Amino acid sequence: MPDLKSMTPEELTAWCKEQGMPAFRGKQIFQWFSRGISSVEEMTNLPKALREKIAQEGQFSAPVVERKQVSKLDGTIKYLWRLSDGNCIETVLMRYRHGNSVCISSQVGCAMGCAFCASTLGGKVRNLTAAELLDQVVFTQKDSGYPISNIVLMGIGEPLDNYDNVKRFLELVNHPDGMNIGMRHISLSTCGLVKGIDRLAEEGLQITLSVSLHAPDDETRTKLMPVNRAHNVDQLFDACRRYFKKTGRRISYEYAMIDGMNDTPYHANLLGDQLEGTIAHVNLIPLNHVEESPYRPSTAKNVAAFQKALEKRGITATVRRRLGSDIDASCGQLRRKAMKAKEARG
Ligand code: SAH
Asked: Considering the chain, what is the average pLDDT of its residues?
């Protein structure tokens, strides 16, 4: 049966016609999905006969709050959602002066194997559907009561490894009949899948591309990110240049600062060589320590020196403020905890 929530209003309209329902019902159904409903009974402007038809001929599901943590420090809210098949994913709501932003997951688990990341420890279980991507935005807004104006695809998973569903999600969340969130308010973060970056460049979307770089040289990057064996640093920067040429959009580089690993003046210089003269923004993120990982965050002194070295070369570099540090608000930590608790219970 078709997954109705993953459909665009245009597809829903066509589906309604096929089912012998009036075409305008398609838009109404889409609007309900963008408001966050869990059952067909909630579609109160649809006649009962139509609601029954929808329930019989199509299907849709909704996530359930498995856990919710609210930061006492900054109001960040972290959700652990249970999906219809029992898998859990995380979404984080961050409250900024310029609006509320939601960080969503793109897969259940992750196949990329980055050495410092909690999301990848259990491997990838499956891709999220477009509906499951959309629901994270819709239900976070509904449950929290905070209107969401920005989205970052920076939660669990590699969005370019779930390309088609992510693309469809962007269309759904951007649609004027739905959440209507502008592409300029959406960022997508990738560990550096070159083919995906090239494909994305062709879409002509106004989203911001973030690239998880974490090291400017192959030796360091391969230690941290296995993906570097498939696409090395040069190939990645080539793809970034092509992306910029095609889209004219500034790329953001994520750089998790790891003590003694990638935070030395040598690394700052190399990164400067790579980025000098390009239109880029570097986001320095003091590493969040993951229990299973041997890596430690850089000292504040080293982070400041690294930032200064980049700025001297004319490269914009900011140090990311840590939000929700009291609630395991970074990548995969909450899901990991829940999985471990389950294992311990047997
Ligand atoms: N797969 C995508 C998006 C998810 S990860 C990507 O790799 O970009 C979101 C960001 O958090 C990435 O930059 C990732 O490298 C970073 N990250 C993961 N674990 C981290 C940790 N322990 N400390 C700091 N940043 C981390």
From this structure: 94
Q: Which residues are catalytic?
A: 90, 331
- pLDDT tens digits along 139-154: 999 999 999 999 999 9
Q: Say if residues 84 and 129 touch (Cβ distance below 8 Å).
A: no
H or E element in which residue 4 lies: none
Least-confidence region, from 53-57, 247-251, 330-334: 330-334
Ligand 1 centre distance from Cα of residue 70 (Å): 21
The structural domains of the chain, ordered by start, are: 4-57 (1.10.150), 64-345 (3.20.20.70)
Q: Is 13 in the pocket of ligand 1 (CB under 6 A)?
A: no
Q: Whose CA is nearest to atom 24 of ligand 1?
A: 287
Span 293-315, pLDDT tens digits: 899 999 999 999 999 999 999 99
Q: Is the shortest distance between the CB of 191 and ligand 1 below 6 Å? A: yes
Give the residue, by CA position, lying nearest to ligand 1 atom 14.
212
- pTM for the predicted model, two decimal places: 0.95
